[in-house]
Here is the input.
Amino acid sequence: MKKILVVFGGRSVEHDVSIITAINSVIKPLRLTKKYQVEPLYITKEGKWFWDESLSNIETYSSGKIANLTKKLKPADISFNDGLIISNGKSFNSKKVKIDIVFPALHGTYGEDGDLMGLLEMAGVAYVGCGVLASAVAMDKVISKQLAIANKIPITNFLFYQDKDYKANSSKIINEINTNLNWPLFVKPAHLGSSIGITRVKNNEELETAIELAFHYDSLVLVEEEVSNLIEVTLPIIGNEVPEPAYLERPTLQKTDFFDFEAKYLRGGKKGSKNGQASSSYSQVPAVLPKKLYKQAEELGVKIYKSFGLTGIARVDMLIDSKVGKVYFNEINPLPGSLYSHNFQKFGLSNVELVEKLLFFAMERFEQKNKINSSFATNYLKQF
Amino acid sequence: MFKNLFSLYRPSFPRNIAYMLQASEYDAIAYLKWLNKTKDFSRVSSRKQFVKTKFSSALYYILVFGIVIQIIIGLVVISLGFSHKIIGGQYYGAAVILSYPLIWPYLILFIIELAKYFVIAPRYRVLVSQAEQVFKSHPGKVIAVLGSYGKTSMKEFLNTVLSEGLKVAASPANKNVALSHAQFAKSLKGNEDVVIVEFGEGKNGDIAKLAKLTHPDIAVITGLAPVHQDHYKNLKQQADDLLSIKEFVEPKNIYLNLDNFFKDIKLPNNILTFSDSNVGDIKIGNVEVSFNKTTFDLIKGKNKSSFKTNVIGFHQVKYLALVYLLASQLGLKDSEIRKGIAKTKAFSHRMEPYVLNGAKIIDDSYNGNIEGIKAGLNLLKRLAGKRKIYVTPGLVDQGKDSKLIHHEMGRLIAKANPDIVVLMDNSTTNSIKSGLEDEKFKGQLIIEDKPLDFYNNLGVFVAQDDLVLMQNDWPDNYK
Here is the structure.
């Protein structure tokens, strides 16, 4: 029985979304297969790592018991000397498990952005999802746009600023934005997902407030033009060398002007979406678009997936100007919330099948990588 | 071993005992059987949960109170031992405390039996006697619905269709014992044209007892299949028990489903039989079943009438045809009957279709017999689905033939050719598995040891256009 370590929580503003992704969309379906030993590894908001069966129970978090539990539990020990080995202490009754595949279910910083992947590469263990570079690039909206330009992928006009530069020259920057970009604009933290800290602005007053808010979450902020006659779409894709897109999905915008965190996760009814999946009422799956435009967006999504070297799973967000029929790249989410299982389910792939496929892709990439020789004999040291 | 021992002293112990009594329906034999085979008392509730009612809560509090008193007595004896007022008091006291799990599970049963004898039984006798007078003097036609399966559905079909032209009262849900009928009698107004009562059979003599209580004019025997085989000697005795209705209802007013009925039994003369092909002289034809509806024709002589129902399943048509016949005899017009049949729908957990994450689910978890299994698998085979998934824990109360029946069930499942079979791990699993192997089942087999986890997370297991059939239920008191 393969041993799967599901890593979630983390030092990220998307900590809570990660818990739901891990428990509802990864641990539960993996356990239903009866094929794997699934081990939950929870990282607190402060960055402490814990490993215990009770951490795979959603009630531990919803009831607030997690605070007491993490005080009682011993932090997990991770060893990289012989693959990835996790243990919960050194006492006579401590447990130790050698992990075969890691399933990162972290969103945002220190997880989805390539940091964890680097650690796993060092440990020499297979893991689900995108690699170090693809994750890092995907989670940086500025680098993403620059890479898109290099690959001749259409994007909207944008500018970006560091926190310290803005503090020093805020009025100059506001002027620069006014001169070079057309209103309305979007202000976004460069490294966050789940639409956190994103604001649509129509004037300078809103712009300044939005930039302040974005800097609250990130030290790099992006300001970009809005697409006219906008249709927002998103395309979840799985696979390594041969990407397998699911349905193109269209968020149905209601009260708020755009597809924000609240609309995505909290507005699935009066008390929100119970299963933690992005609520079904907020989107149209598959997106109802003219056939040609649907195909164009799907092809662009796949091109982006390949160009960015994404593997395992990712979600590509695109913006469509419905009047001129042009599709723009918006951003990439290398680990979509709840794996976007609602979309794959509609596409005909159950959550159980989805996680099993992701494990397969993880092993496929791992085995391919292991075939590449990483050592080379030289006489270099003999000269010393 | 330590875990099992420790489970006796967990704070949840009284609640678990109360749950076991409740889940055994306060039947002493069923409860004692369960009690004796239970090793880990922390894991008795994996399928259902303790439900607070006045009675179950009272039992729970009696248990808690009794255990606390016993512990206090033990502590007093220990302290008297330490103060040398009782020699060896420490040991006696410890024994008093440690023995509560050996005493209270049995003592509480004794208390229940006393309550049954001195409180419940006298009240029961009064209620039943009053109810018998109500049924006896009722001017409407009383229709008894009995059989090993399909009773609640048949009762609901009759209720729905007859209500189109008559004033009808029907016993509620699947309540089918004397006490529930006595309660039901209290709700009758006396102006009903038809009263429908469901007869539950659990042991020999039950049918006669219920017939004496309700005085039926018409009886419908929905079918025979092995159920409650722990209480009936054999299938013949079960068939005889059903046919004992002839002592209370004129044979010409008895309608019997002949499909798979006991072959070597002499049926009363003039009894009307029905089957998948006909009901008396009404022939059944052109049956089409989809996920949402069933359509069929009824042909009498040269007249053909077409019907549509929200009920799904080929096997259901004969019951609706019988409803048509009874409704006609009771004076309903064809248009009223057609309207009524169009309104009929599945009762909860009986071939009940619903959609979950785009998958088509048929919930037949209240089915508990091999005939229902055959009907369900026939439907699974004939309906379309991207992946076909069959889920079952197996059948309870199948008596000494349980292994054979479950082996046969495995073969039937394999013949229906589902892509995935999910079995809930219990004493029947190996027999079903061997049946699957004999029939060379090629799909995926999953053995689930946490049924509740599976049922609660079915949504993550399925995808758009999957077809899932869930049959049977496996209460916690069966292993």
About this structure: Chain B has three domains: 2-121, 138-343, 352-471. The interface with chain A takes residues 357-358, 386, 446-448, 453-454, 457, 459-466 of chain B (CB under 8 Å). Chain B is about 45% helix and 15% strand.
